[in-house]
Amino acid sequence: MKLNRVEFILINNPVRARIQEYYELKILLNMYRNVSVLKSFDTVLEIGCGNGNGTKLIKKYFSPKKIYAIDLDERMISIAKRRNIDPTITFEVMDASKLRFSDNYFDAVFDFGVIHHIPDWRDSIDEIWRVLKKDGLIVLEELSIDSFDKGIGKVWRKLLDHPYESMFSVEEFIEYLKAAGFKILGFRESNPIKLIKFFSLIAGKR
Known about the structure:
By secondary structure, the protein is α/β, with parallel strands linked by helices. It contains 7 helices and 7 strands.
C-alpha cells in the first residue's frame, strides 16, 4: 500500500528521523550485538525504504558493502534518491511481496515498519526467506493489529490507511516466521512516550 497524506507527512518529518535513529535503531543494535551469529554484511536489502532515512542508518551502523532499497511508492523512491547520493546504494520501485531478486542473494533484510502495510503479508515473509542466504538475518521493527486497538492507537487507526482486516497480531507474525523457516534470535516490544506500540525482532534463516 502507498502512504496517505497524513502518513506521508509523518514519515517525512525530521522528528520521525530522530526517533528512528536514537530510539528505534538503538533497540535493534543492542539486540544485534547480542545475537550469537554476529557477522558483517556484504549485500543487504531494505524493504519499504521510504525517504531513505532507514537506508542511511543501515549504511552508518551496519556498514554493508551494498544496499538495495525498495519501496512501492514512486514518490518515496524519488525522495530517497535525492537524499542518498551513494554508489553503493540502489533504490528501486518494487513490491515487497514480489521481489525481483535471485534466491539466496542477501546477507540480511531490513524492515522499518512496512510489512504491516501489506495485505498479503505472508507473501512478503516467504519472499524474504527466499532471497536470504543460509544463516541470513531479518532485522525489523513492526506494528501489529494490537498497535491500533487501544489508547492512542485507535486515533492512528482513523488517520492511517492500513489493511486492518488482514493485519497480523504479534503472535501470528512470529508463528508464521517460524513456519516459514526462521529462528527467532531476539524480540522486544516497545511504546516510546506512549506514541504507538511496536515490536523489534531479529530472526535467522535456518
